[in-house]
Amino acid sequence: MPAKDRLFGRLALNHPIILAPMANASTPALVAAVSNEGGLGSIGAARLAPDAITTAIREVRAKTNRLFAVNLFAPLPVIVDAAKIETARRLLEPYYREVGLDEVPAPPVKPPYCFDDQLSAVLDEKPPVVSFTFNLLPVDAMRRVRASGAMTIGTATNVAEARALEEAGVDAIVAQGGEAGGHRGTFIGPFEDSLIGLMALIPVIAGAVRVPVIAAGGIMDGRGIRAALGLGASAAQIGTAFLGCPENSAVNPVYRANVLDAADKPTTIVRVYSGRYARMIRNRYVTEMSAHEASLPAYPVMGALTQPFMQAAA
Amino acid sequence: MPAKDRLFGRLALNHPIILAPMANASTPALVAAVSNEGGLGSIGAARLAPDAITTAIREVRAKTNRLFAVNLFAPLPVIVDAAKIETARRLLEPYYREVGLDEVPAPPVKPPYCFDDQLSAVLDEKPPVVSFTFNLLPVDAMRRVRASGAMTIGTATNVAEARALEEAGVDAIVAQGGEAGGHRGTFIGPFEDSLIGLMALIPVIAGAVRVPVIAAGGIMDGRGIRAALGLGASAAQIGTAFLGCPENSAVNPVYRANVLDAADKPTTIVRVYSGRYARMIRNRYVTEMSAHEASLPAYPVMGALTQPFMQAAA
Predict the structure, then answer these.
(1) Confidence class of residue A28 from pLDDT cuts 50, 70 and 90?
(2) Domains of chain A (ranges, CATH numbers)
(3) What confidence score (pLDDT) does residue A282 get?
(4) Which of B189, B203, B223 has the CB atom closest to A230's CB atom?
(5) ipTM of the prediction greater than 0.85, yes or no
């Protein structure tokens, strides 16, 4: 059976559309709406506490009987570099003051949630699909997900990653083009070498693996979906184009307006929010902080330092 | 008339295919073969001496009665930074020795050819199409090209550049995706902010200008051409996929084999050859020299320093 039919069969898709797991914007209402229309909604659970993950999954289940995915960030080593943490704290201070916050988080700085606790919260709810990015899942985590019966979807930005994911046993692979907004998924090689546009990335990944390929990045309408399918993808994962939906209109209206207005504005890839490279719209914070990028802690430590500021700024 | 029909009419195309102007690889024989088959061949004249440009155009004309393009690099300011030149000379020395050359070119370092002389050589032959990249043409150069009766094609990597080119009066615009091999055409904003994949770039440029848009970057076969047209392009400019043609088999067989074998190998964008950022396959020189990128002269000075080495290494 061709990869496309396998994907459609397993995900019960009527349309080759997967909602990207956007933190904040992929609300349970939007996830359920996409699934109810015959696409696949995805909960962006990576920055949710375990109990919030439980709540989100239950909210989706209350609104749809169809399949949906839950997305997590695969864990990465936590590197505590005291000097970089102090540099970041000093640089962040004026921004914290500007939004009326007292203090940048002080050491010991640690990620807000433990991956294993997040994964347990996910699997306790037995979701039909678990997707992930940033890395392979640790072997034991992969085993737990598969044992739960969930279908697994990993994220690749180059051919080596796609092959590694297939080897690890995923059921489908998101090919994340250089166009994609948000975090880069690269885990083999430097991220700069894997900013590969979908025009080049889809055919090489679809030619290198047997599992279905889902194209992600810069797909805004039917033209993009048709282009992705024609290049060898089985479906398209779409984020930004869903930002204008009524199902997430209550969330972050300033951010929505900013992104929706930005179709032809330059974006840039920096690691000044979470510590991991992500494509975003330039603002004053991005421009000023990226000048110090080499002196800032890595993900997830940097993310722990910026989280209160990001919440307040939002 | 839709943009696509205008382009087909003016270029007398039977197929929506334009041969990319590749230095060395877009030989007169290949240019003529593509035009004879109903595409548009392009002579990569940017690094040719004026008399070599004359010869190349006449060779193409001897082999085809159909239309073809001649491509130049729009001129950029020449910045002579003595310290950077000395740094580059010192760093280049061991590579020169390795390929059996005596000496890195000494100051005064200047570009091998003057743009105005190149343009005069081009226009004396009255080619049907003049295409360019790196910038807008200077106003007087643009006037000379249009007065010659040639159709003009400029290169854009973002919407602002596409609008500026249309304003300057070009007849068509190459939308160069971040996927593209070779030099980046960016002239408004830093190049890093305009590594936009074609999936996102074609629709926004096609939506922003009225002239026909030609998609370039990572298009390797009919799937890519169909995807580009579906996204709003009127034709596809293709380079790498033509490297395996018999019409250029005598040129640089090692380079050809290297590129043709590299479909799924990581590429990188560095400015260690010409001084201007270009996407290329990693090799030892690229990796070692890019560590010193900030200390190297800009294009075209760096190109003048590396030219003898590049020729010998090829």
Answers:
(1) very high
(2) 3-78+113-264 (3.20.20.70)
(3) 86
(4) B223
(5) yes
Closest residue in B to A227 (Cα) is B227
Residue A126 has pLDDT above 70, yes or no: yes
User: Do A263 and B204 make contact, defined as CB atoms within 8 angstroms?
Assistant: yes
A112 vs B258: which has the higher pLDDT: A112
Task: Dump pLDDT digits (tens) for B222-272.
Answer: 999 999 999 999 999 999 999 888 888 777 677 777 777 766 677 889 999
User: Do the chains contact at B227 and A158, CB–CB below 8 Å?
Assistant: no
Q: Which of A197, A231, A263 sits opposite B177 (nearest CB)?
A: A197
pLDDT at position B161: 98
The residue whose two tokens read 């200390």 is: B295
What does the DSSP assignment read for chain A?
--HHHHHHHHHT-SSSEEE---TTTS-HHHHHHHHHTTSBEEEE-TTS-HHHHHHHHHHHHHH-SS-EEEEEEPP------HHHHHHHHHHHHHHHHHTT---PPPSSP--SS-HHHHHHHHHHT--SEEEEESSPPPHHHHHHHHHTT-EEEEEESSHHHHHHHHHHT-SEEEEE-TT--EE----SS-GGGG---HHHHHHHHHHH-SS-EEEESS--SHHHHHHHHHTT-SEEEE-GGGTT-GGGTTS-HHHHHHHHT-TTS-EEEE-SSSSS-EEEE--HHHHHHHTTGGGSPPTTHHHHHHHHHHHHH-
Residues in A touching B226 (Cβ below 8 Å): 227, 230
| The predicted structure's pLDDT at residue B112 | 83
Sheet holding A278-281, edge to edge: A182-183, A278-281, A267-270
- The reported pLDDT for the residue numbered A168 is 98
Smallest Cβ–Cβ distance between B266 and the set A189, A231, A263 belongs to: A189
How close, in Å, is residue B200 to chain A by CA atoms?
Answer: 5
Decide if B224 and A267 are in contact by the 8 Å CB cutoff: no
Identify whether the C-beta of residue A236 lies closer than 8 Å to the C-beta of residue A214: yes
Q: Which residue on chain A is closest to B206 by alpha carbon? A: A264
What integer pLDDT is reported at residue B228 of this predicted model?
98
pTM of the model: 0.91
The pLDDT value recorded for residue A263 is 60
Residue of B nearest to A236 (CA): B199
Cβ contact (<8 Å) for A200 and B223?
no
